[in-house]
Task: structure prediction
Amino acid sequence: MHNEMLHHPAIPAPLRDFLRTHGQPLPEPLAAIEAAAHAGDVPIIPHETVDFFHTWFNQVHPTSVLELGTAIGFSALLFAHLMGVAGQVTTIERAPVMIAHAQDNLAAYDTTHQITLRAGDAADILPTLTAQYDVAFMDSAKAQYIHQLPLVLDRVKVGGTVFIDDVLQGGTVFLPEKEIPHRLKGIHRNLRALLEGVFAAPGLTATVIPLGDGLLMLTKDQAQHFSF
Ligand SMILES: C[S@@+](CC[C@H](N)C(=O)[O-])C[C@H]1O[C@@H](n2cnc3c(N)ncnc32)[C@H](O)[C@@H]1O
Result:
């Protein structure tokens, strides 16, 4: 579904454009996959978020990532690259056309077998996972984040980090509901509830990084089950 809110960056466009053109160059095949995604209108993380992950992974050195929303495998391949050969990524995708494309990319480029693609809806796959991860990256259906986050947090180590992409709806997420187009009201309502829930939750540290359409960053400070 086209969401016009996503075409309003959370930061001024000139700053966004500066970040997109002055970041670290990506090595191949990531640069080619990023370009192919843009050419094919596949929604992948924007380049300023790629750069942020580059910096953060180099500082923190995580070795395992759980991802919701593979699309064609760009961010999964990026995480594998940033972690080095010891790193492992489990990534979940439900759309058959994306699964097929991701399988092709992983067969061609995941030569060190770092990535496990789980085909299906995250709501069905998450309860079957047993591993604990250093990092979770949620980049799937925005209205579902609030329902999936408790299951994701169960799978993240204490001290681990959850990143949740596109939480600001072009900066409109806290506008009065009457100013939001009718078909987007549900997404807005759920994102607002998500933001209010995580900032109020004991046991979590929350902040929003205004890159792309807003990257929510959570640290799991305590071993507990969360509900929002
Ligand atoms: C923004 S794209 C992911 C982009 C990818 N993370 C990247 O940056 O390369 C979102 C993907 O999430 C998938 N998706 C949405 N809701 C999902 C769900 N509940 N379970 C699994 N996949 C889901 C969509 O089919 C879509 O391919």
Q: What stands out?
A: The first helix runs from residue 13 to 22. Strands lie at 64-68, 88-93, 115-119, 133-138, 156-165, 204-209, 215-220.
